[in-house]
Task: inverse folding
């Protein structure tokens, strides 16, 4: 193994692999170490995102959406076919292929950019003469590098008294690998994973019940969007119970028993039995096995590595990015930090603006937003104007037969600067990019309203929402 590298990146998830590639592009000598094992014991690059997160969940969401559409949507278009059935084995095999293609894609990119890859688990050993030493197991090989980027990601948070067994009580990994459609599926936590994976199994035929602790549904989203989403999801048959306190989870051969209470009747214990239970109550930063204490790496009370605005830790030459530090646990946020840190190490001026990171929930309808919600603006006392436009009034949405939802834009009352854009409806995972671009350039709603949008496209709804801020929508 080469000695005295410019950079060793620990973790080849979206944060780490992108940091390694960007640093190599800038001429640094880079090694990336990752511990993830594929089913055959080899490396599987891409971290949580590629192996048990973004990619496999979107593969199953797409497949299950095709099934649901064939079952209920096609006939309206005059396309009649025999009642479709699900071959879950084939669906899961396709998902595995998609994951493998992504693993191999990162391997290819490392080769192309001359990033050295080591399959194993890295831990800090010491620092001498401004060079860090990492030990990599198995094999106890020692790597020496002037800079270290920690991109060790996160792990699913278990529910007290209900450890993941991935057979009855499932984390995201088990929830993506179910091999037989359960008749009754429970989900604890109606956050992003609960809604996306709950939707997958509901579409494929499971009865799905979500038990959520908070009294408000999807409290992170804009209130109006959350309300619309709740209506759509319950219409699809997702049973969502709010204000729930879990008393007990008991897994046996026959299934999982969940005892709980609801805020409306706190003295009344209720019970539900499920074939399988997904626990999706958030994720915890992962520094397991890094030997962080040995070198005095500072963590906060949640276990996140403490970093400044530039992702520098308290240790010289040690940086941390992605799920293991503050901010949203999102792949694109990790990637942005990876680029910024690589550029700073190379002496450039990388920076990430957390205020313009987009959020997307890949349900049907999709949900997406960037910037502040109305509740946040009200709480901060900022005067704003709001404009909304429904997909039902858009020609392309009608032609496609996807008319639910709307786009809402919030802009400063005086300067008209766009402060937040909130969307629910068809294709909003793509439409949100326009809002991110606009906000990154600190555009006003009038700027967007004056830009020509192709007709007929769903993007016209974004423009109409911008026009609506000034009460001059053209098509309602
Ligand atoms: P990770 O992707 O977790 O990668 C960390 C890597 O570091 C892992 O490979 C791990 O094995 C390795 N590692 C850890 N410790 C060591 C060590 N000591 N030595 C060597 N290697 C080590 N985000 C989105 O933006 N969009 C989505 O659609 C989306 N969907 C998701 C769906 C699910 C079901 C889940 C669970 C998450 C989803 N996420 C999504 C979140 C996204 O996966 C994470 O935000 C992202 O993976 C974080 O990237 P990261 O590089 O920080 O860490
Ligand atoms: P989450 O934070 O989105 O949702 C967790 C939910 O569980 C919250 O609504 C919370 O109130 C609830 N909860 C917490 N404790 C509970 C308890 N004891 N009983 C009942 N409910 C409880 O976390 P989730 O869904 O686990 O996902 C983890 C992270 O992964 C997300 O925060 C997100 O950053 C990322 N992710 C992103 C996706 C995307 O971008 N589309 C998709 C999936 C995950």
Result:
């Amino acid at each position: 193994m080469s000695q005295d590298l410019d950079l060793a990146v620990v973790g080849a998830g979206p944060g780490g692999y992108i940091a390694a590639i960007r640093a190599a592009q800038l001429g640094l000598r880079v090694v990336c170490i990752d511990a993830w094992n594929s089913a055959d014991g080899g490396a599987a690059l891409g971290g949580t995102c590629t192996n048990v997160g973004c990619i496999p969940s979107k593969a199953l969401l797409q497949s299950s959406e095709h099934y649901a559409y064939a079952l209920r949507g096609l006939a309206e278009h005059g396309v009649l076919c025999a009642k479709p059935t699900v071959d879950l084995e084939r669906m899961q095999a396709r998902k595995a292929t998609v994951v493998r293609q992504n693993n191999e894609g990162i391997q290819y990119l490392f080769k192309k950019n001359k990033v050295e890859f080591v399959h194993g688990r890295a831990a800090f050993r010491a620092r001498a003469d401004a060079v860090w030493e990492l030990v990599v197991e198995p094999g106890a090989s020692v790597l020496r590098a002037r800079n270290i980027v920690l991109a060790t990601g996160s792990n699913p948070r278990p529910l007290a008294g209900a450890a993941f067994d991935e057979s009855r009580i499932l984390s995201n990994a088990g929830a993506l690998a179910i091999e037989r459609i359960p008749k009754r599926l429970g989900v604890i936590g109606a956050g992003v994973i609960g809604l996306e994976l709950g939707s997958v199994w509901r579409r494929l035929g499971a009865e799905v019940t979500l038990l959520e602790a908070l009294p408000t549904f999807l409290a992170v989203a804009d209130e109006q969007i959350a309300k619309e989403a709740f209506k759509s999801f319950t219409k699809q048959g997702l049973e969502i119970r709010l204000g729930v306190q879990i008393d007990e989870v008991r897994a046996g051969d026959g299934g999982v028993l969940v005892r709980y209470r609801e805020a409306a009747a706190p003295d009344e214990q209720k019970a539900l039995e499920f074939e399988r239970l997904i626990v999706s109550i958030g994720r915890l930063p992962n520094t397991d096995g890094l030997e962080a204490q040995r070198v005095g790496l500072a963590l906060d009370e949640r276990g996140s590595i403490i970093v400044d605005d530039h992702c520098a830790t308290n240790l010289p030459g040690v940086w941390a990015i992605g799920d293991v530090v503050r901010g949203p646990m999102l792949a694109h946020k990790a990637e942005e930090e990876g680029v910024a840190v690589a550029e700073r190490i190379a002496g450039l001026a990388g920076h990430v603006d957390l205020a313009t990171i987009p959020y997307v929930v890949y349900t049907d309808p999709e949900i997406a937003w960037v910037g502040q919600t109305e509740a946040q603006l009200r709480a901060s006392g900022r005067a704003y104007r709001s404009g909304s436009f429904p997909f039902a009034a858009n020609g392309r949405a009608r032609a496609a037969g996807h008319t639910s939802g709307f786009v809402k834009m919030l802009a400063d009352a005086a300067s008209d600067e766009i402060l937040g854009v909130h969307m629910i409806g068809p294709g909003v995972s793509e439409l949100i990019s326009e809002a991110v671009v606009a906000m990154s350039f600190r555009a006003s709603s009038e700027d967007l309203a004056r830009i020509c949008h192709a007709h007929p496209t769903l993007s016209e709804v974004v423009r109409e929402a911008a026009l609506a801020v000034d009460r001059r929508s053209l098509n309602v």
About this structure: Residues 60 and 128 are 48 Å apart (CA to CA).
